[in-house]
Amino acid sequence: LKMAEDEAKQEGSSRMAQLPLPVTVEQPGTLIMLLQSPEQPVTLSAAKALYQFAKDGGEGNEPEIIMHLRGALGDGGGIPVVIKLLTKEAWCGADFEVQAVCLNILSRCAGEAVADGRLILRKRNGESCQADKNGEEKCRLKTVELGGLKPMVEHLKSEELDVAGKAAYCIACHALDSPVRLGIHILGGVALLLQLMSNKNADDGVVNQAALALSTVLQHVEAKDELYRLKGMKVLIDQGLMSDSVDVQENAARALAYAIEQEGNLKDLRRLEGIDKLIEMLAALPDTDRVPNDKVRQSVSFALSLSAFDSECRTEIRMKEGLRALSNCLASEEARVQEEALMALANCAFDIPCKQTIGALGGMKNGIGLLSNGELSVVANACVALSRLVFDFMSGLDFVEEGGVGQLASVLSNYCKLYDQFVESKQKHVEDLSKEDLDQEAKKAAQDALEKLEIPDLRLGRAILENCKSCAEQGNVREEMRKEENFFGNMFRMIKHEDEIVSGMACQALANAAFDVEGRPMLLEMNAIPEFVKCLTYKDVDTQLSAARAIGNFAMDSYGRQKLFESKAMAPLVAQLEAKDENGKDAIEPRRAAILAIGKCASDRSSAVELCDIGALSKLLSLMDTHWKQLGQVPAASFSPPHPLAFIAF
User: Which one, of 289, 270, 290, 282, lies nearest residue 340 by Cα?
Assistant: First the structure.
């Protein structure tokens, strides 16, 4: 060192000597100390070296060293150091290069892979997000708590566009929770991200990061309102959808999808001819000159599915050949494209003209074909779409002719097998835990196995049963369903599902079988009445209504009434006269169905006497004076002479 100083003095130079440091750093804490150096080259080298601790690793299976990095930053005081380097108070002074690397570090530690829009979409749809498993949430929380959002948002205004782009990406990595999205909105992040997208000097990479950040931030309702006030839909369409970069198109379409959940933005979408542009981006019509891109198709289909909740948008999609384009997307080899296109078609199918158009375009056949798809999310959306396409006799006939009954029976059977395996495994672990002679180690292993046990996809189960319900509403389809081996038996198996929503959907599907003379004996043989009685107590109004209607149908003949009497169904049925919905408000339709069922049950003297004994008559009389006309008329008819209940009453 002295020789170097002497040499520098002799040469009359102020240049500092560069010392060789052949040191291997094994702990990130060492680098965190070096980050606090007042010398920019030292800080930059330390920051780059620190980033290497997080840079390596396979997709979805990051090495343990990343955990050490996040631990050092989160618990070892490293995050405040990195945040300070983003500000003007940095020890080495404000430096673009250092800031860019520090933003990369925060992005990686916050869960860089989680920021991928497609994974966010999976999470929104209720699927587990495998990327968020290595302590990222803890680091995100720590960064936000320490005020890291403010410098991130400030750097969106950076003159160095590379830093601005990295700041946008860092925001996207952190904006996975509603309070964080709100914080970014309050700091003016929405306006700055729109400005960054509109910057003529920004390259596609920077615009893409801004669009990605907007696709996360715009999931907050106040951010959607802010976008409308800023007329941001024009930016998303002009700078995003019309971009030459497919990555920008993908993220802009997803940001637009979340934005149009606000009515003003939805109107702007139609006014700016956004529906036309979205359909064109699918590149699925014969006259298109675009090259199809699966990622773009997925996000565009998602945007169209959300726009289709509006009746005017549904009409525009139908008139602009959007249904044809979406139907053509079903032939894609990419499962995610099929999944989102199916949901878009399902939402368009709320209108009868759209249902008919989709059917004419082969949507029924394509949907049935996708029931055998290997991706469960595709199967679920196919079930949802088919449940809306089967709506009358002719559509039911198409469903039968295309082999839909057999395919649906197979899907339901497979789901029942998965659920039975789950129940069997759960029961085995519970039995193991109840053994008194089990040692602590074995008991802990059984407890861990029980906690790791995952119930089969609930969304898939609900979608399958929703399809079964709509099909069973059509007599011609219901007849074919009865011919299919154990079809109704599997639906009855699902009515015992531990999830109330799945069980309720099974009740609604199975209740339709009670409309037929051939179906009622089959259900009675399964001993279905106690399950329908149980479903009267569910929170869902449609389930209550279906259960009451099924009980009323069983009461149409003396044998069914006797079975209801033996199953002690009278008291729960009378209790249904005070039915409430899930919000505690009076549920009119279930009450009305219960009144009609009571009227049928009272055709037998024994049932009529029991009904009077448990107070049915007084409740019916009170309902006659209700302000709900539809309820007041029904009880009056229920005990008009010569009805047995009226005979007993008088």
Answer: 282
Query: Other CB atoms closer than 10 Å to residue 309's CB: what's the count?
Result: 14
Structure tokens at 405: 């009954």
What is the spatial distance between Cα 192 and Cα 154, in angstroms, rounded to a whole number?
Answer: 9
Output the CA torsion sign for 22, 24, 30, 33. positive
In Å, how far from its chain's centre is CA 465? 18
The burial class, CB within 10 Å (0-12 / 13-18 / 19+), for 526 is middle
Distance CA(345)–CA(387), nearest Å, equals 11
C-alpha to C-alpha distance for 570 and 234, rounded to whole angstroms: 61
Beta strand segments in 261-300, E: none
Q: Which residues of 329-362 are buried (b: 16+ CB within 10 A; e: fewer)?
A: bbebebbbbbbbbbbbbbbbbebeebbbbbbebe
Give tens-digit pLDDT for 481-537: 988 888 999 999 999 999 999 999 999 999 988 888 888 888 888 889 999 999 998
User: What is the DSSP secondary-structure string of 327-393?
Assistant: HHHTT-S-HHHHHHHHHHHHHHTTSHHHHHHHHHTTHHHHHHHGGG-S-HHHHHHHHHHHHHH--SH
As a whole number of Å, the end-to-end CA separation of the chain is 115
∠ CA 87-93-96 to the nearest 5 degrees?
70
Contact criterion met (CB below 8 Å) for 153 and 188? yes
Angle at 400 (CA atoms; ends 395, 403), nearest 5 degrees? 130
At how many degrees (to 10) do helices 475-483 and 487-494 cross? 100
Please confirm whether the linkage preceding 22 is cis (ω < 30° from 0): no
Tokens of 344: 């878009």
Distant-in-sequence, close-in-space partners of 6: CB < 8 Å, separation ≥ 6: none
Q: Please provide residue 127's backbone torsions phi and psi, each rounded to the nearest 5 degrees.
A: -90, 150
- pLDDT tens digits, 108-118: 777 765 555 45
Nearest-angstrom CA–CA distance, 586 and 577? 10
Low-confidence ranges of the chain (pLDDT < 50): 1-5, 7-21, 54-66, 117, 120-126, 129-132, 632, 636-650
What's the token pair of residue 222?
A: 């106040």
What is the four-CA torsion angle of 392, 393, 394, 397, rounded to 10 degrees? 120
What are the residues whose beta carbons fall under 8 Å from the beta carbon of 272, sequence distance 6 or more? 233, 234, 237
Q: How far is CA 33 from the centre of its chain?
A: 43
In this structure, what are the phi and psi dihedrals at residue 84, rounded to the nearest 5 degrees? -65, -35
Q: How far apart are CA 606 and CA 569, in angstroms?
A: 13
Whole-number percent of the chain with pLDDT over 70? 84
Contact 495, 550 (CB under 8 A): no
Contact 288, 241 (CB under 8 A): no
CA distance 387 to 363: 12
Coil vs helix vs strand at 46: helix
pLDDT of residue 23: 60
**Beta bridge mates, 58:** 61
Task: Return the number of other C-beta atoms located less than 10 Å from residue 533's C-beta.
Answer: 22
